[in-house]
Structures are given as C-alpha cells and as structure tokens.
Amino acid sequence: MKVLKSLSIFAPLLMTSIARAEGDVFMPPGATEVATQVDSIYSFLLWSSLISFVLVVGGMLYFVYKYRRTNPNQKSAYITHNHALEFLWSFIPFVIFMFVFAWGWYVYDQERSFPADSLEVHVFAKKWDWKFVYKNGKESVSSVDANNNPVPAELVVPLGRHVKLIMASTKINEASNDPNDRAVIHSFFVPAFRIKQDVVPGRNTVLGFKADKLGDFFVFCAEYCGGGHSLMRAKVRVVSQEDYEKWLASEGSANLSLADKGRALYAAKACIGCHSLNGTRGVGPSYKGLWGRVEEMSNGQKLTVDEAYIRESILEPNAKIVAGFPSGVMPVFKGQVTEEDITALIEFIKTVK
Ligand code: HEC
Ligand SMILES: [Cu+2]
C-alpha cells in the first residue's frame, strides 16, 4: 500500500516533467547548437529513467502480487542466484551508461573547445555584479535607468562567432585592504546556451559558446555568493557582425586597449627592467613569443604558456621556475596587482610576438 501511495505521487510528477522536457527541458528555448545536443541527452536520460522505472517498479509489483503468500504453510523455494539474469541486469545498464558517458563526453568536448579565432572577452565577477571587458578596452557595466531601475551589464557578441570568455572573480573594490572585501566564487550561467562555469578567486576559468540566434539572453550567477546573489544578473545580446562592430566602436571604447594598459603596467610595475620584448635575455626571459609556447621548467616539467601560467608567474613567481633562470629573483606581485591588471598584462604578453 505504501509503495502504491508513493507511486501515485511520483508518477504524475515524472509524467509532467517528461511532457515538458519534450518542449523545453525546464529551460528557455536553446540558442546554440550545443544547447540542442544537451537537450537531447537530457530527454534521453529522462525517457530511459522512466522506462527503467516502469520496468523495475512494475516488475516488482507484479511479482509481489503473483508470488504472494496464499496460505500460512506456504514456504518459499530456496533460490540462490541466476548467472544469466545477473549478467544481463549488469551488462545492459553498463552498455547504456557507457553510451550516455560517450555521448556526454562528446558534447562536453564541444563545449570546452575554443577555436583559435574565438572572440575573447574578459568577464569580471564581483559581489554582486558582472563586468565585460573587450580587448579594445571597451567595458560593459551595469547601470540604472531614468527610473532608477537596474540595467544589467551586456555581453554583446556577433551571431555565429565562437566566443571565449576568460573569467576572474574580483573584490568589490580591488584597491581596498578591507579584510571583509574578498573575492568569492560565482558561476556564469546562460540557461539558453546550456553553459555554466564557476568563476573562482585566484584563477581564470574559461567558457565558450557560439550563438545561433539573435536576441537577448539572461545570464545568472549560479553559485550562492552572498546577499545580492539573486540580483546578480547580466545579459548576452547576440547581434549581427555589423551591429557588433558598431557597438564595439561606440562610446566607452576610447579607453586604452587591454594590451596598451598592459604595456603601461609593464613599465609602471618595472617588469621592463627584467623582461625584454625583442627576444634578448635579461634577468628574466623575454616576452617575445612567450604566449602559447611550450616552456620548460627547472624541474623538467614542460607546460604551455596560457592565462593560468602567466597569472601564477606574476603572483607567485617561485611556484614554477623557468629552466635556466634563477629562482627568488622576480618580486612576488601578490597583493600588488589587481585582477584587471593581470588581465591587461596577459593581453599585452599575448601581443608580443
Ligand atoms: C627583478 C627582475 C624581475 C622583475 C621586476 C619581474 N620579473 Fe618576471 N621573471 C623574472 C625571472 C628571473 C623569471 C624567471 C624565473 C621564474 O620563472 O620565476 C621571471 C619569469 C616571469 C614569467 C615567466 C616567463 C617564462 O618564460 O615562462 C612571467 C610571465 C613574468 N616573469 C612576468 C613578470 C611581470 C608581468 C612582471 C611585472 C609585473 C615581472 N615579471 C617582473 C624576473 C623579474
Ligand atoms: Cu555571484
């Protein structure tokens, strides 16, 4: 009876979720190719769960009824096991799980691939707002309208172009030494694109997408980050290439480009004293051709120079030492540079070819 009762609650729930899943998977209509694929996996999981549920619970109920005790002297037969059955109920689910694994891997791999010609945009998350910074220095931040209603920051991107978001978590005021003002974990979530990625203090995380539909799409923070978490919203605005270029060149873009900002920091923070731009060896390695190179460390480790490596090289220079260079020579810049400084320095180093 108990089983029946709990079933009677569960079944309609499952039915409605599947009915809805057909249309929208509890989600807004997908606006990327990957979103369609995620929805397919999701429907498959729901349907296969429903079928297994009916088979297992239906079978159980059927057997409970069929083999019920009909008189008090009845004894169960002594049954130990059945190799064929046990093999089947292990092997069939195994095949299904491996199929889902391979399918999920395939979609994940697409989500995590970043073609070299991706449009790179920097995303800064803080309590409780998003900020988007383009390479030319253009910034998109939140504001308020004439009625004092909040207008979220907009990530404007061209239709059909791969976009790579390079994300960092910052303090509310990077210049302050207030111990309560700490960078925390956020998560950049675009439901219509079916993509989500944590933004973690002290490192860069990346996220990619290619929008196939024009329009506005919500961005939410999907990691509880304090009191204003639910208000931490932004918007992705997908526009034509033409409109994108117009927007990129519009007001605010008179800012220094990120690379130029980085070049200024390179001088201001005295990196210039040890790192040349023309390939000459100084106290430290030259920046020429550094980006994307496979660098050998003093412990023999080989790694590709990417955002994470440069960030670590700046904040904790002694964590990894470039082969052939002294350790303990480069000053530790932890606490001396902001997230945005690091971003600018990285963008600058990218341009030193
Ligand atoms: C006093 C000299 C000195 C200054 C100033 C200095 N560095 Fe360095 N830097 C070094 C040395 C020496 C190394 C190589 C040893 C190591 O890996 O720490 C290095 C390594 C690096 C690397 C790794 C390079 C590679 O080939 O893999 C990066 C990136 C870097 N520094 C960035 C910076 C930035 C950015 C600044 C300024 C904010 C800076 N450095 C300031 C001496 C310096
Ligand atoms: Cu948040």
Instruction: Report strand %.
Output: 15-25%
Q: What is the CATH superfamily of the largest domain?
A: Cupredoxins -  blue copper proteins
Total beta-strand segments: 14
Q: What ranges have pLDDT less than 50 throughout 5 or more consecutive residues?
A: 16-22
**CATH class of the largest domain, anyone?**
Mainly Beta
Using only CA atoms, what is the Rg? 27 Å
Helix/strand/pairing category: alpha+beta
Characterize the overall form. elongated
What would a concise description of this structure say?
The protein has 353 residues and is α+β, with helices and mostly antiparallel strands.
Kindly list the characteristics that best describe this protein:
353 residues, alpha+beta, Immunoglobulin-like, Cytochrome Bc1 Complex, Chain D, domain 2, 3 domains, five-stranded mixed sheet, 7 helices, 14 strands, 20% strand, binds heme C, binds copper (II) ion
Provide structural commentary.
By secondary structure, the chain is of the alpha+beta class. It folds into 3 domains: 2-67 and 79-111; 119-248, Immunoglobulin-like (Sandwich), CATH 2.60.40; 258-351, Cytochrome c-like domain (Cytochrome Bc1 Complex, Chain D, domain 2), CATH 1.10.760. 36% of the residues lie in helices and 20% in strands. The protein contains 7 helices and 14 strands. It has a 5-stranded mixed beta sheet. A 5-stranded mixed beta sheet has the order 6-12-11-8-9. Residues 16-22 have low confidence and may be disordered. Residues 128, 186, 221, 223, 225, 229, 232 line the site of copper (II) ion. The site of copper (II) ion (CU) has 7 residues, from loops.
